[in-house]
Amino acid sequence: MVHFLHPSRVPRSLVPPDARKDAQGWRVVQEEASPYPLVDICLNVLIANLEKLCPERPDGTLCLPEHWNFPQEVADHFLGMMTWQGRLTDKTASIFQGNQMNLKLVSIQKAKISASAFIKYFCHQKLIEVDATAVHSDLPVPDIIRGLCSSNWIQQNLRCLLLDSASVPHNSRPLSFGQLTGLRTLSVFNVWFHSEDLANVSQLPSLENLDISNTQVTNISALLTCKDRLKSLTMHYLKCLTMTKPQVFAVIRELKCLLHLDISGHKQFRSDLAFDLLQQKDILPNIVSLDISGSSYITDRAVEQFIQQRPAMQFVGLLGTDAGYSDFFTAKQGLKVAGGASLSQILEALSRYRNRSCYMRKALHRLFTETFSVHVTMPAVLQLTREQVTQLDEDLFMAVKELLAIVKQKTTENIDDPTLLFSLKALWNLTDESPATCKHFMENQGLAICIQVLETFSESTIQRKILGLLSNVAEVRELSAKLMTEDVVKHISTLLHSEQIEVSYFAAGIIAHLTYDKQSWLLCDLQRSALLQDLHASIQKWPSSRCKMSALVTYRSFKTFFPLLGNFSQPAAQLWALWAVYHVCSKNPSVYCKMLAEEGGLQLLCDIQVDGQANPQAQQIAVSILEDFRMHFTSYRRFPLC
């Protein structure tokens, strides 16, 4: 699946903030049935070989061969790929000089290029949108504005400018956006942006969408200048605001065209502004989207009354508040809620708050709790109606899809943070003993994303979570064959030899499950034999099953181990299963020895103990487990022992 940029019928808007469904205009859209995967392959080859394929100018910069010309959409996509791969530099950006690359949508997020390179290589183009989110400090905001204003065409036609987290030198004069008369959307989230800058921006004749979150704005009265055209206003974590609540409401009350308002708080700045806003009856008559996540004193009743007075509302953000729990929020048709009261609300929050780490942590924590409760209450799930079961399945499908999107984004950006770890842990938890969820995982390119993670990060914590997740998929017989790809086998074989016992353990488990069905390996039996030999050799290097792992290994059931325990033709896989069972039984015998007995596993151990063809090491572990059971359950007569 490829992301590329193309125009739609109307200009981009931030109302409401949903990148796929609600943003209007020039935007990123997923095209599943397009030929762009082939284009990606070609462009990746070009990016990897830029120095070989592109001649060098006398000044050391690169230029395209004379006969090369890129269509606009391909040029936009190529630039985006270079940016994401970290290949956009002053030297490589020079290929955009001239007219062989016709750009409209420039994405230079986090790129390290100089102001002179930006102006020379991009500002001669007929740009509609510029995304300079978190661009390196070598290209500060004043230089971006100066470069864009150097083109009369851009002054009149640039519609969208995203400057989130870009730098502004403290000694620079107030920012001047006044020449960008065609600008409709401006985002200066987390930028050194003051009230005088807001006064300048508010005079832009076409401005409709504005994000001033986490800026130094103290007074928003300047917004009255654009009250008749402003449709979207985002003021998340506006911590420096010095106006009284009546003064703020006096401004907001005049914004009659406003469709989206975001006054959400932050864990370091919980405001009661939203609480008082909900009490106002003569304000925001046309609002369709209100985000008050992270606000104090919010109640279901107050939110319900506000929405009932404004029936056109389609979205409300309530994450981190005490609201969202009443039946009203599920009963109202067409209303989306980003909150923590249900799985659907959590998924909406994950979708909308990708760039707000404080909300992502909260939503992922709630998701983990919610998905764990689904497993714990599985008997109750069996009592659900067909419609309720269908809804649950759809929610789990969306949960997998959103989590994989988060993992892919973090991996592409090479960001190893708590959000990535929480997402992987939630996926691991969701797929545990859930074949349907494992199927959703595979259908949403989960395997390719996992390979990308393993190729990007080498931390054992991440490797362990990926392997645990793939172990869950390997346990599903109808899916395990799909894991037998060259990339998967290569990575698993490598990780089997990890010095971290937890990593080696989970890699071994995947091999044990993948090699169980001999029929699937008819065309590569030699490889299967080699894997099993490698598995057996690796287990010999492990410490005793009673060893302590840095990460606690837990299981909800032993049933997926039983086929391995009963398979005497595959002693290496049987040995791994015994090692795993003994490990958890020795750590928590009151739980796991009892589970083993109740699920019928004792007889399998007895069979191993007495079978003349069994591996002596396997027999010894089986004996040890049975002895532990006798020691901890001397009075447990319910299960006869061999």
UniProtKB/TrEMBL annotation:
Where's the Protein zer-1 homolog-like C-terminal domain? 365-628
Pfam families linked: ZER1-like_2nd
Whether Repeat counts among this entry's keywords is yes
The answer to whether keyword Repeat applies is yes
User: Which key words are in the record?
Assistant: Leucine-rich repeat, Repeat, Ubl conjugation pathway
InterPro entries documented for this protein? ARM-like, ARM-type_fold, LRR_dom_sf, ZER1-like_C, Zyg-11_UBL_adapter
Q: Name one GO cellular component term.
A: Cul2-RING ubiquitin ligase complex
Family to which the UniProt record says this protein belongs: Belongs to the zyg-11 family.
Record PANTHER family:
PROTEIN ZYG-11 HOMOLOG A, PTHR12904
Listed name of the protein: Protein zyg-11 homolog A isoform X8
Give the organism, scientific name: Heterocephalus glaber (Naked mole rat)
For this protein's source organism, the top of the classification is: Eukaryota, Metazoa, Chordata, Craniata, Vertebrata
Q: Which gene encodes it?
A: Zyg11a
